[in-house]
Amino acid sequence: MRKYLSAMSALVCVLLISGCSSVEKKADDDGKAKCTETDKAKQEKAAADAADLAKRKELAAKLIPVLKIGDGVTRSFEQIKKSQLDMQARQFKSRQIQDTEETSRKTMELMNKELNWDKLKDQFINLYAESFTAEELEALIKFYDSPAGAKIVDKQPEVQQKAMLITRKTLNDTIMQVYKMNREIMEKQQKAATAKANAAVPVAAPAAQAMPPLPAAAVPAAKNVVPLK
Q1: What is the pTM of this model?
Q2: For the chain, first and last CA: distance in Å?
Q3: Torsion (CA) 129, 131, 134, 138 in degrees, nearest 10
Q4: CA 156 to CA 98: how far, in whole Å?
Q5: pLDDT of 91-147, one tens digit each?
Q6: Distance CA 51, CA 68 (A)
C-alpha cells in the first residue's frame, strides 16, 4: 500500500511538473509571438514613414522651381554681396587702409562659395517636405503651376517691396506719434512739478519798517528848569 501511494505521489508530481513546463512554454511562445508582431509593426511603420518622406521630398523638389525660390534667394545674395563690398570699402577708407583688388577678389570668392543656391537647395527641399503633407504639396504644385498661381509668383517680389514700404511708413508714423505723446506728457509733468514746488514755498512776511524821525520843527523846545532848593 505504501509503495502504491508513493508511486501515485511521484506520478502526480511528474504530471504537475509537465503541466507547469507546458504552461511556461506556451506563455514564452506567446510572448515571443507578440514581440515578433510588435517588431514587425514597427518595421512596417518605419518603412511607410520613409516612403512617405521620400514622396514628400520628390514633390517638394518639384514645387520649389514652380515657386522660383532659387531666383529669389539668388537675388537676395547678389544684394548682400554688393552691400558687403560697399561697406568694406567705406571701412577701409575711414581707417585709411587701401582696398586692394586682392581683398575684393578674395571677399567675392568667399561669398560666391558660401552664398549660392546650389548649397541651400537640399535644405529648402527638406524644409518643405517636413512642413507639408504629400497631398498639400500636390495641391500647391497644381495651384502655383496654374496661370493665377504663376501670376502670384511673378508679382511676389514687387508686392513684397511695396508691402515693406507700407509697413516702414506706418512704423515711422507710429514712432513719431509716440515721441510726440511722450514729450507732451513730460512737459505736463514738469509744469505740475514746478507749480507744486512753488506752492510749497512759504510767503515771507514784510519786514517791519522803523518810524521816521520827527522833523526838527516838530520837537518841543526845552524850557529852563528851576532847580529845587
Answers
A1: 0.59
A2: 181
A3: -90
A4: 41
A5: 777 776 666 677 888 888 899 888 999 999 999 999 999 999 999 999 999 999 999
A6: 26
* Residue that the C-alpha cell 520843527 belongs to: 217
d(CA 151, CA 146): 9
Per residue, what are the HEC states of the chain? CHHHHHHHHHHHHHHHHHHHHHHHHHHHHHHHHHHHHHHHHHHHHHHHHHHHHHHHHHHHHHHHHHHCHHHHHHHHHHHHHHHHHHHHHHHHHHCCCCCCHHHHHHHHHHHHHHCCHHHHHHHHHHHHHHHCCHHHHHHHHHHHCCHHHHHHHHHHHHHHHHHHHHHHHHHHHHHHHHHHHHHHHHHHHHHHHHHHHHHHCCCCCCCCCCCCCCCHHHCCCCCCCCCCC
Instruction: Enumerate the domain spans of the chain.
Output: 42-145, 148-193
Q: Yes or no: say if 53 and 125 are a contact pair by the CB < 8 Å rule.
A: no
Reading phi first (left if > 0) and then psi (alpha if -120 to 50, else beta), residue 68 is in left
Q: What tens digit of pLDDT does each residue of 30-87 get?
A: 666 666 778 888 898 999 999 999 999 999 999 999 999 999 999 999 999 889 888 8
Chain position carrying cell 571677399: 107
